[in-house]
Amino acid sequence: MGLFDKARSDTASKDEGRERLPPGQVTTEKWPVLTYGETPLIETKDWRFRASGLVDQEQILTWDDLLAFPAVRIVCDMHCVTRWSKFDNAFEGVRVRDLLASLNVKPEARYVMVHGYGGYTTNVPLTDLMDDDVLLAYKYDGKPLEPDHGGPCRLLLPKLYLWKSAKWVNGFELIEKDKPGFWERAGYHMYGDPWKEERHGWSW
Ligand SMILES: Nc1nc2c(c(=O)[nH]1)N[C@H]1C(S)=C(S)[C@@H](COP(=O)(O)O)O[C@H]1N2
Ligand SMILES: [Mo]
Question: Which residue minimizes the CA distance to atom 6 of ligand 1?
Answer without folding.
Answer: 35
